[in-house]
């Protein structure tokens, strides 16, 4: 007997052994329930007769439970003329445009609002820290009207967008070398980047600036408590519970600009610690942005003025780029950024 035949016979023996056990269990259960109505021997013969007609069929094949997935058809590229005409960052080449549908002026609602704010590409706020209007222009807008050269500098000749294509890199490098373009000292595209300043720090600096530098720190450096008390007295008058002759409160006037400067710094540092001891600094405090969490628990940076969603990664060239809008159900991203929701 071959191995296959032995395995087949073993399977059949196991099958019949299980049938025998089932027949005995059926016989016992039926006799307990209907023993006064049926004959035990007749029931056993009936069960054995049924059992004898059963056999294990090993010729049937198991059908596959799942069909192989068909290959997905690649998506057909959208007609650029049927899309919003605003240029977007994409991979930094300058060839990408917004994928939302256009309105009557060729722009989607969001970009139409930005163009109404400012239609000149590369425009920033006075300090250069925040983008204004339709920052990258329309897909058919070029630097100084020269087709093929993407907008890269503002009306003052300051570099604002560093495109990643070799073509634009060479143009920007040449412009910086011949002086037709200059890298800004601060803000967007500067070597230092935007200055990180928290709202609380700015408030502390403003408060410190309005406090007259009249306290002498040459003999004794005031403690945090002393500093706070001096500030409160300068702003709101002497406290009735505070002793004017306290040894911790210096009384001598100081006219040295250097010492006054040190005092201003100490005031700012003291207020910074008191106002925001555990708060991380915000990037670009001028922007009215907030962190919002979607239904999957992912955090997004949203401009609360127009509900624009920003790409937020200071190590990435796309940092600060508008990638969609915040809707009722969370972020509604442009097609090229939808991978961020996966």
Helix content: 25-40%
> What strand line-up does the widest sheet have?
3-4-5-6-7
Low-confidence stretches: 193-198, 212-223, 240-268, 270-286
Figure out the total of helices.
Answer: 7
Number of beta-strand segments: 7
Could you outline the blueprint of secondary structure elements for this entry?
Blueprint: H1 3-34, H2 40-52, E1 87-88, E2 96-97, H3 109-117, H4 166-178, H5 199-210, H6 224-236, H7 257-275, E3 289-293, E4 299-303, E5 308-310, E6 322-327, E7 330-333
Antiparallel strand pairs: 1-2, 3-4, 4-5, 5-6, 6-7
Helix pairs in contact: 1-2, 5-7, 6-7
Can you give a write-up of this model?
The protein is an alpha+beta fold. Among the domains are: 3-52; 199-275, no CATH class; 289-337, no CATH class. It has helices at residues 3-34, 40-52, 109-117, 166-178, 199-210, 224-236, 257-275, and strands at residues 87-88, 96-97, 289-293, 299-303, 308-310, 322-327, 330-333. A 5-stranded antiparallel sheet has the order 3-4-5-6-7, with no helix packed on it. A hairpin with a 4-residue loop joins strand 4 (299-303) and strand 5 (308-310). Helix 1 runs antiparallel to helix 2 (40-52), helix 5 runs antiparallel to helix 7 (257-275) and helix 6 packs across helix 7. 19% of the residues are buried.
